[in-house]
Specification:
Number of strands: 5
Strand content: 15-25%
Shape: elongated
Distance between the termini: 30 Å
Order of helices and strands: HHEEEEE
Number of domains: 2
Number of helices: 2
Structural class: alpha+beta
Largest sheet: 3 strands, antiparallel
Length: 116
Amino acid sequence: MGQREKAKAELQQAIGQMYDELWQWREAHPQASFDEIAAQVTPRRRAVVAEMLKALAGQHGLGQAVEGQICPECGGVMEYKGEPKREVEHYLEGETELRRAYYYCPQCESGLFPPG
């Protein structure tokens, strides 16, 4: 199974789980207002969308090292320092965690995360 199919299957599973949880909540709260229902849906939807954003952001090798990365500050060659995790928060869709390549410039001591 390729990366795309795996990400799609995981997303479909997460959506199904979200739906089941919300359906059970609604059965337990038959008098809930529309706003109360929305208050249950919103955080779960944001979590699922965060996973989709994570999968799409990693789609084109954003976590892969690039040889000869040039420092935008001084023009020197940067050193690859691994792929630390980074919390990313989107103002509409919530937060997720990404792994991105990190580069350090020994000449001017600046860092770049992510490259480019």
